[in-house]
Amino acid sequence: MEHIRTTKVEQVKLIDRFSTSNKSLMGTLYLTATHLLFIDSSQKETWILHHHIAAVEKLALTTSGCPLVIQCKNFRVVHFIVPRERDCHDIYNSLLQLSKPASYDELYAFSYNPKQNESKRLQGWQLIDLAEEYKRMGVPDSNWQLSNANRDYEICDSYPRELYVPRTASKPVIVGSSKFRSKGRFPVLSYYHRDKEAAICRCSQPLSGFSARCLEDENMLHAISIANPAHHYMYVMDTRPKLNAMANRAAGKGYENEDNYANIRFQFVGIENIHVMRSSLQKLLEVSGTKALSVNSFLSGLENSGWLRHIKAVLDAAIFLAKAIAVENATVLVHCSDGWDRTSQVCSLGSLLLDSHYRTIKGFMVLIEKDWISFGHKFSDRCGQLDGDPKEISPVFTQFLEGVWHLTEQFPQAFEYNEAFLLQIHEHVHSCQFGNFLGNCQKEREELKLKEKTYSLWPFLLDEQKKYLNPLYNRDFSQKLVLLEPNTASFNFKFWRNMYHQFDRTMHPRQSVFNLIMTMSEQNKQLEKDFKELEAKMKQRNRQPEELLTKEPLQSVNPASPALKTSPCFKKEQPLLPMNDSIRTIEGSNTADNRYSEYMEELSKAEPAVVSLEYGVARMTC
Amino acid sequence: MEFAELIKTPRADNVVLHRPFYPAVEGTLCLTGHHLILSSRRQDNAEELWLLHSNIDSIEKRFVGSLGTIIIKCKDLRIIQLDIPGMEECLNIASSIEALSTLDSVTLMYPFFYRPMFEVVEDGWHSFLPEREFELLSSVTNEWRLSYVNKEFSVCPSYPPAVTVPKSIDDEALRRVATFRHGGRFPVLSYYHKKNGMVMMRSSQPLTGTNGRRCKEDSALINATLRAGKRGYIIDTRSLNVAQQARAKGGGFEQEVQYPQWRRIHKSVERYNILQESLIKLVEACNDQSHNMDRWLSKLEASNWLTHIKEILTAACLAAQCIDREGASVLVHGTEGTDSTLQITSLAQIILDPRCRTIRGFEALVEREWLQAGHPFQQRCAQSAYSNSKQKWESPVFFLFLDCVWQILRQFPCSFEFNEHFLIMLFEHAYASQFGTFLGNNESDRCKLKLPQKTMSLWSWVNRPQELSKFKNPLFEANSLVIWPSVAPQSLQLWEGVFLRWNRSSKFLDEAYEEMNNIIEYNKELQAKVNALRRQLAELETDDGMQESS
């Protein structure tokens, strides 16, 4: 690679990010075409994918070397000290280039090769079939049909080819409506609730300005409204704060005027835009990354970041949407400005509350494919896959995952998947290792020939789904509970430590109940199998005495016997009691992992007059 | 005094009870000397409420026409509402409740009237005698002795009759040291670390005063716990500033010149009214569901509760670290040595000693480090989060200790024999109970009140197998290691099981816990079955082998 000047640097220190006494590990840093690798003296490896790097910073030279701080999109933060400034500079420059590729073909997905044959690779891409999903919802039916209006992306290039619209919406209505909507994103079906015959539809903002009208758009909404035979009104949810929507009018955009549309109930829900969200996360990470953080600075930082307020706003909007459908049987049309950020959040979380299918592993993949990938959430821009406008980057999808996590916390038995699944998806949304999330829309993905050149993430996740199963999942629970109604009183929202500190091991519980139960429930399946086998053997044995009497010569050819004959040695191979200890071990509980330990390092030194302690405010005098 | 005098209206009909997560119930309200009882006329009697008057923290009255409403706020943080028809009845009942929930004589409390309906297998009053604890100690070291210098509670009124002190220090010296320490609380053994023979002692502040008074015996006593050439650490739970100010009032701290073998660390832990205010603020924040996110977070912050948790845990970790990692002995004290000192010494033991993480061991710890050590429960737990009167002795010192234990339990969920419910139960009983365990302020009080003779011990009830099963942690596996909790703010959490208990439904969480239990039980069952079959098969196999060889 032309960007790499130095491939290996020795005597590099990896500094504990939360230590004030600069506790560190010595090791060697390697730079490869795809990864930055640090191997410490105990041979522990830290791999950092170039695409995961959000920012590299070279700090002022110190006596021990040149500090290099790398922040990753998966919230890993590493702090190296490179002994020679020139090496540091080389690595810094290489990483700057490597972490911000100029074109898609430089992305890892195009070189990633898991050694899988072609037919399996293609099968992988067919795993999630959205046509199948719409069929499962019950469309097409007498009210909804597949439209061919966008078959060649002629009306809207950020929508998929296949779109479902009301049967009564004619082609001219669709075309007219799309001309009246930002980026041509006219109202289409996102989710159909078969029992209630109510739908979630999505679009972008109307180009209404202060007074503009569009008859076709009005007809389009009317068509959606009457596609729900039970109902005579529909909701239009504008997910933006009212002020933002009004400001948009000056630019010829805006929101629906209730007087112009028959039977709509218009509602703002006040989710902030991508820029507010980006700076909110920035603030959150600044606070959580602070050394010697006090409880009060943490809580006030959490408050000032507004992060949990935003998460609550998204969830509240999703609940409003889900209740409109489940309780009022009303169809809801959701939009924001362009209809690919907040709209995706609200539609997908709303569907998740309504339909237990999306709470299964496969169903969750479908949900992401549908509401995020196919409807053109701009993953490339939002995740900063290429070197581009940093103002386009925003943690919109991360917020969606966090919303799901909050639901799993309140309904521990309603989800087939666990937290690790959410974290893994988050990892790969940013890794650019698989083709699914590359690009900004389906059209772009087709042009990139992703299905020919890259692999799909989903089959890989499905292959290792054991890791992602929630042992407490209760299928019946999921079905009897028609609508999940989470409690959104503020005290229910917690800082998602396992996401934002996923690489800061010392902050986590040292024993995981979840892993334990997962292992146990795995073990139970094995034990059930063992039990059946043993029981079969027993039965065979119990029959044998008679057989022994009558058909003694046959015993030697009894297939069960040889197996049993070898059994006296099984005691050595299989302990009578499977070892449980291994799954209950305490991970790394020692003072070195905790900040208070460093008082003692200080204390052991000779007599400082006053020592400020890292955590807490105590001072020591002698 | 007769309770009847206080009960003007003993019963009222058509009273409607409102409480969290239950539909409203209409029924008859009865007041007895110790309980408020509401029974509906339903056949199954399922909808009954029995509330101890002593559990009532405060009440409020409201009237709409002739319908009165009494809002009862309990010490366990629950809030219930009673709608009582008739203004006079309502006023009578309210004033009776007020009088009965604030009886000033301990001997009128329910434990003196309670007759247990269960058979006592083991009398809890004798389960954790100092002699037993000392026996355990003498099996590993002979450097200590049990002193009865305080037999009559004359040397230190807040110490138990028997305390463990260095063998080389005689009772006469102890008497002298007692005069040099606040409230007579001379340094005594709190914990012996078997692994390296290091110890933790606790005491109150030395009475050095402004002119630097000294006491030879005091330094001799604590020096007796040091190995030759080794230094010890004194952890003072006050800031240096506060400790210096204490000298003006006759108190003080160990000056280096007089205690050259000791290094003093000031680790400030808040006390008394500050903690009480913190609790009041926290509960207020938790009880208002309408708070938006910013308001909730700023109220949570303003309560400072989690800051106190972090302070206490950090100090306890430091003490544990001195002992286990530095191989040094430790003396812990604050001013009186009855509050923050006990938080630190007891939490350090949870961290260091696997025994304290068992049910029995934890009970022994509560007995040793809280009850016998003279934490004034009666004063501290007289009122809880809803107290509106300005009394100065209330403070959730023990409550904070339980919260800290819960935080460690969250971080090491398999290392404790007990579960969260056990901690919640102790919280409830410390504030209001049918048992005598938490009555009085120290052993001397308990002795005068003849509690062991006249009341039932909480341990007698808890330690019955039927009760214990509720408090057992299904994930428990004995773990002999020292457990070092994280004290980073990101690792500390609001104790939802207590603070949000009455504010949101825990149905789904409870069901999930149930399911987790099922998986564990099923695992045990399957293992037993599989092992039994394997054994049978193995036996048959040996029989075969014998037949073949014969």
TrEMBL record, chain A:
Q: Name one GO biological process term.
A: phosphatidylinositol dephosphorylation
* Classification via PROSITE patterns: PPASE_MYOTUBULARIN, TYR_PHOSPHATASE_1
Q: Where are the coiled-coil regions?
A: 517-544
Q: Which InterPro entries match?
A: MTMR6_PH-GRAM, Myotubularin, Myotubularin-like_Pase_dom, PH-GRAM_MTMR6-9, PH-like_dom_sf, Prot-tyrosine_phosphatase-like, Tyr_Pase_AS, Tyr_Pase_cat
The record's section on Pfam families has: Myotub-related, PH-GRAM_MTMR6-like
Q: Give every Myotubularin phosphatase domain span.
A: 124-500
Record-annotated residues binding substrate? 273-274, 336-342
Q: Does the keyword Lipid metabolism apply?
A: yes
Could you confirm whether the keyword Coiled coil appears in this record? Answer: yes
The alphabetical list of record keywords is: Coiled coil, Hydrolase, Lipid metabolism
> Which CDD domains is this protein grouped with?
PH-GRAM_MTMR6
Annotated Gene Ontology cellular components are: cytoplasm; nuclear envelope
Q: Which residues form the active site?
A: 336 (phosphocysteine intermediate)
Q: Molecular function terms in GO for this entry?
A: phosphatidylinositol-3,5-bisphosphate phosphatase activity; phosphatidylinositol-3-phosphate phosphatase activity
Give the protein family: Belongs to the protein-tyrosine phosphatase family. Non-receptor class myotubularin subfamily.
Protein name in UniProt: Putative phospholipid-transporting ATPase IH
Q: Lineage of this protein's species?
A: Eukaryota, Metazoa, Chordata, Craniata, Vertebrata
TrEMBL record, chain B:
InterPro entries per the record?
Myotubularin, Myotubularin-like_Pase_dom, PH-GRAM_MTMR6-9, PH-like_dom_sf, Prot-tyrosine_phosphatase-like
Membrane topology note: Peripheral membrane protein
**Carries keyword Transmembrane helix?**
no
Domain Myotubularin phosphatase span(s) in chain numbering: 124-499
What subcellular compartments does it reside in?
Cell projection, Ruffle membrane; Cytoplasm, Perinuclear region; Endoplasmic reticulum
Could you confirm whether the keyword Endoplasmic reticulum appears in this record? yes
Keywords assigned? Acetylation, Cell membrane, Cell projection, Coiled coil, Cytoplasm, Endoplasmic reticulum, Membrane
Q: What is this protein called?
A: Myotubularin-related protein 9
Family from the record: Belongs to the protein-tyrosine phosphatase family. Non-receptor class myotubularin subfamily.
Source taxonomy lineage?
Answer: Eukaryota, Metazoa, Chordata, Craniata, Vertebrata
Q: Which organism is it from?
A: Platysternon megacephalum (big-headed turtle)
